[in-house]
Amino acid sequence: MERHSVKAGAPEGAGRHYHEAKKVTLVSVAVNIALTLLQIVIGIIGKSSALVADGMHSLSDLLCDFLVLFANRHGSKDADEEHPYGHARIETATTLVLGVILMGTGAALLWGAAQRLQDPSAIQKVHVMTLWIAVLTLAGKEGLFRYMLHVARKLRSRMLEANAWHARSDAASSLIVVAGIAGNLYGVTSLDLLAAALVAAMIFRMGWKQAYQALMELIDTSLDEQEVAAIRSTLLATPGVQGLHELRTRRMGDRALVDAHVLVDPRISVSEGHYVAETARARVLKAHAALDVMVHIDPEDDSAVKRSVHLPPREELLRQLSQRLGDRMPPAKQVVLHYLGGKVDAEILLPESPVQQAETAAALNAEIAKIVAEDGIFRAIELRKIAP
Questions:
Q1: How many CB atoms neighbour CB 170 within 10 A?
Q2: How far apart are CA 105 and CA 320, in angstroms?
Q3: Domain holding 378: CATH number?
């Protein structure tokens, strides 16, 4: 079984990944602090529930940004003895926390809006200032989304991309707030509270989506079918690989863990099998965003044929042959065993040239025929001549 791994981190290096992610997150923090203060203060003064709800959304973004900074700092660390696969799952756990926070925020805001909609005295006209702050928020969140998404895709960070789409959901909610406040100002006063309820529902939905995806990763859900098919094609195209089964994948942060059983010619040497595994591993690491690849070399498709684990080990088989063949048994290094199809094929290597070897070979052939006919372990025993 060949197991190979590379250090966790993006292609540009863990250091650069961390610093660029930190930079974009700090920009997000600064924007959200400014918008949160404006939305909540002006929303309360201007009596806009929708703007206050959007402000609470921005406040949750601040907490999310700090969690992202924490996860990015610790998740970019290299692998160590206690964490041989690296620390990328910190990002996954953080994404799960982000989702739960958003779900809680959305549920609380939705409950508040629903309660106020049932109270006619809570439905009142808002101040025009709230509309301008809502428009400013919309422009700020959309610009932040485009900037964060660009950096996230450059770094291939699922967590940063999740945070970028979070900013886009904020922009969408801000658009609803603009419409709700505008409708309130034009006489449909309930639109402000309806906008607040809709924003709350959007927050909850986004939280559910992020939490669900993170949970699927934490329970080792496979990569999507297209990615698995691409990895399968890469392995099958490797010289020396005759088949593939038990391909398993899972995600860790923005990269993948891959386990595969590949079928090779059962008669090749151990070193050649190792070479095939090395080549297969290198091709997957080069062509796909893989953190670790484990390739198990199979001489036969053990998912379809009888396994050989019930058979005796080499020492016991040699002992049995020695008892039957006596002095005609060659040294152990001249016996090659193949565990195939639930039985054993043996190759006995005999030096050629001396005349007396012909008699030895004839006697061996006679005894070998008896062994194969009577023994339930050996499927075939073949004599092969080698240069002395």
A1: 28
A2: 73
A3: 3.30.70.1350
Residue corresponding to tokens 């050629």: 352
Tally of CA atoms within 13 A in the half-sphere of 16 that contains its CB: 9
Kindly report the number of other CB atoms within 10 A of residue 388's CB atom: 9
Query: Are 271 and 161 within one domain?
Result: no
Per the structure, the count of domains in the chain is 3
Q: Cα dihedral sign for 321, 323, 328, 331?
A: positive
pTM of the model: 0.57
pLDDT digits (tens, 9 = 90+) for 137-174: 888 888 888 888 888 877 777 667 777 776 777 777 78
Total Cβ atoms within 10 A of residue 366: 9
Q: Which of 366, 49, 8, 55 is nearest to 193 (CA)?
A: 49
Task: Report the Cα 334 to chain-centroid distance in Å.
Answer: 46
> Left, alpha or beta for 9 (phi > 0: left; psi -120 to 50: alpha)?
left
Angle in degrees, CA 220, 221, 226, rounded to 5: 135
Chain segment 293-316, per-residue pLDDT in tens: 889 988 888 777 777 788 888 899
